[in-house]
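Collaborator request, handled under Task 6.
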Amino acid sequence: MSLIPSIFGGRRTNVFDPFSLDVWDPFDGLFASVVANEPSSARETSAFANTKIDWKETPEAHIFKADLPGLKKEEVKVEVEEGRVLQISGERSREQEEKNEKWHRVERSSGKFLRRFRLPENAKLDQVKASLENGVLTVTVPKEEEKKPEVKAIDISG
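Structure tokens returned to the collaborator:
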């Protein structure tokens, strides 16, 4: 067992375990230089742009839920576009720094977000409802009732 790192850049997290060799990743750090060249506002926007949204389907409706802590309903927009596309967007403004204030850490993301979902054919686009409670946006898209095929019994003669 060698304690010297390999020529491929691998290193052992535990020198006594032969299977603990970290796998060399040729793409490791590739995007770090790209992100480092972005302006800080772009990094902040991209952090908030990754807003996670859950979509579940019940027998009655399609339900979308998004965690949007700290946003007011005036800062969020829910639209149905042509082609049965549900669009959820909004913006969280960054707090302004006052001259006599000193920030020690800024972890909350700010910026714009936009998510689009293609709705299925059974969605009732004219009855979409949205509510924002405790930082959770809930969008309910009712479904049309399934039309069951009509079965007609045929009398058999004879």
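The cover message to the collaborator said: "Helices lie at 32-37, 40-49. The mean pLDDT is 77. Please let us know whether this matches your experimental observations."
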